[in-house]
Amino acid sequence: MSTSVSPLAPKHYPAMPAIDGVRIATAEAGIKYKGRTDVLLFVFDRPAEVAGVFTRSKCPSAPVDFCRQNLVHGKARAVVVNSGNANAFTGKRGREATEKTAAAASAAVGCASNEVFLASTGVIGEPLDAGKFSHLLDGMARDAKADRWLEAAKAIMTTDTYPKVATETVLLAGVPVTINGIAKGAGMIAPDMATMLSFVVTDAPIAASVLQALLDKAVGATFNSVTVDSDTSTSDTLMLFSTGTAATRGAPAIADVDDRRLDDFARALGRVLHSLALQVVRDGEGARKMIEVQVTGAATSVSAKRIALSIANSPLVKTAVAGEDANWGRVVMAVGKAGEPADRDLLSIWFGDIRVAHGGERDPAYSELDTSACMKNEDIAIRVDLGIGDGTATVWTCDLTKEYVAINGDYRS
Amino acid sequence: MSTSVSPLAPKHYPAMPAIDGVRIATAEAGIKYKGRTDVLLFVFDRPAEVAGVFTRSKCPSAPVDFCRQNLVHGKARAVVVNSGNANAFTGKRGREATEKTAAAASAAVGCASNEVFLASTGVIGEPLDAGKFSHLLDGMARDAKADRWLEAAKAIMTTDTYPKVATETVLLAGVPVTINGIAKGAGMIAPDMATMLSFVVTDAPIAASVLQALLDKAVGATFNSVTVDSDTSTSDTLMLFSTGTAATRGAPAIADVDDRRLDDFARALGRVLHSLALQVVRDGEGARKMIEVQVTGAATSVSAKRIALSIANSPLVKTAVAGEDANWGRVVMAVGKAGEPADRDLLSIWFGDIRVAHGGERDPAYSELDTSACMKNEDIAIRVDLGIGDGTATVWTCDLTKEYVAINGDYRS
């Protein structure tokens, strides 16, 4: 595991305001790690509205199966997250572990088992012993406090080198409402030690179906636009909860996704998810540089995103950035291999503000010196214009360094 | 560039027999490299039948465009290959370079320009100065000899650490015919310094249309089943030529792909391509281990191949093998992310002969010690049985090491 904090870590953390109706507790259960917290409990004192999106993996973890099942009820009273073990590919014993954890949580909080949501992150294939932490939930539920967001983010870390939090406060029909989020993830999405998990809570009184629609829309340009290594976890989980407590301060109940009073809220939710997603990329395993890949002029936006991800997932593009090499030939390669409409002779490529290729060949004004200087930056912007349509997309990734190989090749042996 | 030969290199090279009707010359043109050959000329003294398959990239190199155009004529008199510059993304100047080279070759050999085939490999985006080698072709055509196959393979190397050759001799209706092949490639398919090129010549009198059908069929289980880094070159080229000279020894002319007399030849062609493709993988940039990924029990063979490639292209699987870690959790992840039909509870996974996972969880007989011992081998076999159908596929890749990052992150800077 990493011992030093990513050079791309945030320089400071926002103050995370308390949100009425949700309390937080963390504990050291020693599931795998020693000397740090590894269990997180969210308690909603009254049933919260809930929405979620999960991994598209055909081999999802037991907690993902469990959450999907409970999500149809649309109400949450408790969330239990453990780090150190993903409870994935654990078969019948995995299901038993989720049931045992949910039973303990429902007893601790005083709710139905289908109002409990679970997530686990850590090693795959090792049976998860829920007995290591289920007995702690009772005390945690009693001691949970509203102002523990940073502690919450710390308890769910695996190979992360820093906790990830974000917050926004906006007006909903003139009433301030807050959105707090936490996330973990360092290999996007490494299955063993770096599953992506994120939990977001608001006090805005918004119905579950509307939360789900907002989340489905917001995830495309945020968590679904970041990649560290193209590997998709068995456990990816993003959940959004509403305590609705801003209603006591006059916020209106929103039950229609087309309600225009939601516009500012939706944008703020987008900013929270965007911040968390970029924090995940900036903590990418071994990352030394963040890369923004912007594709414009594609046939469609779907096509633009496929091309952007082809560039962002290319080992050769990522190693070139690691080597501070403005190797736009590899960008051409990645455009070409995406299989999307593209015409070599209409392609333009920029590194930062410098156009390096244009009209099917190297830009006549290309300067190796200027471009090399640009590649020394911590944040690298690659832009490709295809010149054939209006489709655009932006995705984010990080460079591929020897440390990535070391982290993923050495840690278990 | 690499200075030491891959530990996975062949321990010896086959003797490459001469093939009547084709002569070979190589030369030092100093296109980029110093003190080594970098131009290859094949001369067919009578028009050879020709077939080819090329990169699927939407941004192909100028020589690929040129070859596709000439292939419709189905006859070859000369092939010119240069290393050091890929003549890709070079626009109008790239087309001019192919025309200049083809004109020089047709003058040297005494043939039409549409009987010339070209390939270039090396850096992308730099204009190729055909003048550096076009004046050499005349002398090369005069001096070309039949017994220079290994020299041919050496002249087209870029980041390759060893030349790649293969040969088979089989009976065609009782008459011995020979198939000789050469290949280059080290990052499959790295666009800058390791484009995959392969040229195969036989004396069997087989019509171009039949050669094309044989090649289309054979490429699926050979060159299209290997991957080093999932990156597809702008320049991938595989060509098959027939001099037809075995006819003088009584071999029958074959004009029908369903002619059963072709069966042994088709199998031998498959072995040549398989050998060359595996030599490319074994020279994968930074490779220390070769990985064979076999998928059985998939819904269909197309599905099996997608799953096999998902495993073979996963940076997390490849780094685990580099670290000699039997991390089957990452194999589960790669199966899950392929998006193909899969049922966690029916999945079985083997490393070598050791079944590590079965029925949705770790194999009860799993031994970390035995499995770790198996991971110390140079050749690693990963097998996944999905338990839902009859689809099978096998693909080959190599591990992902810090040297891969060094080769691709450091070489241009």
From TrEMBL, chains A, B:
Site entry: Involved in the stabilization of negative charge on the oxyanion by the formation of the oxyanion hole: T121, G122
Subcellular localization: Cytoplasm
Active site annotation, chain numbering: T195
Key words of the record: Acyltransferase, Amino-acid biosynthesis, Arginine biosynthesis, Autocatalytic cleavage, Cytoplasm, Multifunctional enzyme, Transferase
GO biological process terms, semicolon-separated: L-arginine biosynthetic process; ornithine biosynthetic process
Amino-acid positions noted as binding substrate in the UniProt annotation, renumbered to this chain: T158, K184, T195, E285, N408, S413
GO CC terms: cytoplasm
Gene Ontology MF: a single term: L-glutamate N-acetyltransferase activity
Pathway, per record: Amino-acid biosynthesis; L-arginine biosynthesis; L-ornithine and N-acetyl-L-glutamate from L-glutamate and N(2)-acetyl-L-ornithine (cyclic): step 1/1; Amino-acid biosynthesis; L-arginine biosynthesis; N(2)-acetyl-L-ornithine from L-glutamate: step 1/4
Free-text function comment from the UniProt entry: Catalyzes two activities which are involved in the cyclic version of arginine biosynthesis: the synthesis of N-acetylglutamate from glutamate and acetyl-CoA as the acetyl donor, and of ornithine by transacetylation between N(2)-acetylornithine and glutamate.
Protein name (database record): Arginine biosynthesis bifunctional protein ArgJ
Organism the protein comes from: Phyllobacterium leguminum
